[in-house]
Amino acid sequence: MSSTAHAATPYYFVPGPSRHPAMAALGLFFVILGAGQWINGEDWGKYALAGGMLFWWGVLYQWFRDAINESEGGLYSHRIDLSYRWSMSWFIFSEVMFFGAFFTALWWARGHSVPALGSLDNALLWPDFKAVWPSIAAGVTASPANIIEPFQTMTPFWLPTINTGLLLSSGVTLTIAHHALVKGERGKTIAFMWATVLLGTVFLFVQGYEYAHAYSEMNLKLTSGVYGSTFFLLTGFHGFHVFVGMLMLLFITLRLMKGHFTPSKHFGFEGAAWYWHFVDVVWLGLYVIVYWT
């Protein structure tokens, strides 16, 4: 069990010199180098990318293991808890700004760029262009010059609606797990945490099926004009965040099974929960703005 009352708990724990930041940076260097070279046709780039990722994951495993051992060893005081809370708050704020940029790009395209292309100033260049959203065929909104293949647009039925239900349900199961942890009901906490992880995993599979359907049957791709690019950037980055959040919840669940966290000290759980609820809120915005309007 966690050592919440530790006689040697410092007022503010300062870890000793660590190799982890430098080693993580080295791994990311090979990740970026390999990805850049692979994109530019160098076959060795994919091996550098894979090696860099494996190295980076190994460093993260050791880094997180050390942090967990420090926490379970009773080295983290109330001041460290506050530090983690502020850090997670600012991290989520940065994610709000990240998605805000993409939502703004979608708003700008729909409210300004497309109407500008259909204005009187451009009537001589594209006399047959119709400034409507969303575009459903080449030459309408996606491509005044008729260089984009015709495609179909996404609707909320039924896969996006199913995914909305999955994410909302996962928020409920996570909240139940949190309340159970506060009450000291560890078995119930673990059960509902596994349910949350399962719902997040199913969400990812449903989104993967949606992408396959979009590419094969709707001809909707990342290159399908501004509609396709904004759709896949918003939903794709959100899906990546769901994947990261699902991994966070998975590791928290495994820690719960090892006896970590107590009813009074469990910010690792809370931080992951904050992130997951943020992911839920972003999806609701996507569901309304991308699929319904």
Relevant CATH superfamily of the largest domain: Cytochrome c oxidase, subunit III, four-helix bundle
Instruction: Give average pLDDT, whole number.
Output: 90
Q: Looking at CATH, which topology of the largest domain would you report?
A: Four Helix Bundle (Hemerythrin (Met), subunit A)
CATH architecture grouping of the largest domain:
Up-down Bundle
Q: Total strand count, please?
A: 0
The percentage of residues in β strands lies in: under 5%
Low-confidence regions: 1-6
Order of helices and strands: HHHHHHH
What overall geometry do the principal axes of the alpha carbons give? Answer: globular
Query: What is the CATH C-level name of the largest domain?
Result: Mainly Alpha
Q: Please work out how many helical segments DSSP would assign.
A: 7
Amino-to-carboxy terminus distance: 50 Å
Integer tally of domains:
2
What does the main sheet amount to? none
Helix-and-strand structural type? mainly alpha
Question: Your description of this structure?
Answer:
The chain has helices at residues 20-39, 44-72, 78-117, 159-182, 186-217, 225-257, 267-292. By secondary structure, the chain is mostly helical. It has two domains: 1-76, Helix Hairpins (Orthogonal Bundle), CATH 1.10.287; 77-292, Cytochrome c oxidase, subunit III, four-helix bundle (Four Helix Bundle (Hemerythrin (Met), subunit A)). The radius of gyration is 23 Å and the shape is globular. The chain starts with 19 loop residues before the first helix and ends with a helix.
